[in-house]
Specification:
heterodimer; A: alpha+beta; 5-stranded mixed beta sheet; 5 strands; B: alpha+beta; 8-stranded mixed beta sheet; 5 helices; 8 strands; globular
């Protein structure tokens, strides 16, 4: 298994179809019973201005994804880390990004769903 | 997050997150059942959104009430947000969305989402003054019958773990627990 430094991790908002495909790849490894498609994810982004999808890559390899959006009383979000990339700080880095975004949305708590 | 994902739950607990709710997943194997009769209560008819495509504002009003009454729900969905999720999302089909009409009033609705060979049922919305009369049962039977006719393999659903009336209804309709798909809701600080 290739080692990597956390400094090689890049977490960016998902904007392109490549980003959405990367999310689908991660979800397929973490929750194979889910069936996201580029069409559905693109629809969600276009219909909700305040929804943010995040993709984490090490080089070209997608290793995690997540989302965060505001609800009435709190922010709601989720993180998925590829199973054989866990315990390396990726989840913590993703959570930091999600909570930063939640604070920016004026929320002081996050529900993980 | 999945209830079975202990690693993720511990990850969040170490960061101050606590469990605040959960969704029990259930499945109905459509091959194993006969299509049920809808049997709406007296004075109610159940139609699809193909037959009644323009009742969105009324459906939304019912959805608002239903959402407010789900344990743990924070409500607050705008009409545009509701419409995007319940009507316009690519997984929605008007022939798989059912309205309960009493006279000319929308008193309930339920809608399926299509994911490959499976369909998923989310919210069953019944207007408060029409609850406990069989409206939700009729809507779910309409969904089950339509899903079976359309050749889907499974109908999946979930109900909030504190939503006892819905759990009893799902059990009556033949759904069985799918604990491998059940989820928990954890809440914590954002710093």
């Amino acid at each position: 298994m290739q080692q990597f430094e956390l400094s090689q991790l890049a977490i960016t908002p998902a904007a392109t179809d490549d980003d959405l495909e990367a999310m689908i790849h991660v979800r397929g490894l973490v929750t194979p019973e889910a069936h996201p498609t580029v069409e559905i994810l693109r629809f969600n982004l276009e219909s909700k201005d305040v929804l943010t999808y995040l993709v984490a890559r090490v080089g070209e390899e997608p290793v995690a994804c997540g989302f965060v959006e505001p609800w009435a009383l709190h922010a709601v979000g989720d993180i998925a880390v590829v199973p054989d990339r866990r315990r390396r700080g990726i989840g913590s880095a993703m959570l930091a990004k999600l909570t930063e975004r939640a604070r920016g949305l004026g929320k002081n708590s996050l529900q993980a769903r | 997050m999945k209830e079975s994902d202990v690693e993720s739950r511990l990850f969040l607990e170490r960061r101050g997150f606590v469990r605040v709710g959960g969704e029990q997943a259930l499945v109905l194997e459509l091959d194993a059942i006969e299509a049920p009769e809808v049997e709406p209560p007296p004075g109610v008819r159940v139609v699809s959104r193909v037959e009644e495509p323009d009742r969105l504002e009324e459906m939304y009003a019912v959805a608002v009430q239903a959402d407010e009454d789900i344990p743990g729900s924070s409500g607050g969905q705008t009409f545009e947000e509701w419409r995007a999720h319940e009507i316009d999302k690519p997984v929605r089909r008007p022939e798989l969305c059912f309205l309960a009409l009493a006279g000319d009033e929308v008193v309930g609705y339920a809608s399926l989402q299509v994911y490959g060979d499976d369909v998923f049922h989310g919210l069953t919305a019944t207007r408060r003054d029409w609850r406990r009369r069989g409206v939700a049962t009729a809507l779910k039977r309409a969904e089950i019958a339509a899903a079976k006719r359309a050749g889907f393999r499974r109908l999946l659903t979930e109900s909030e773990e504190r939503n006892e009336p819905m759990q009893l209804l799902n059990e009556k309709l033949g759904f069985v627990a799918a604990p491998e798909l059940s989820t928990v809701v954890m809440q914590g600080p954002v710093g």
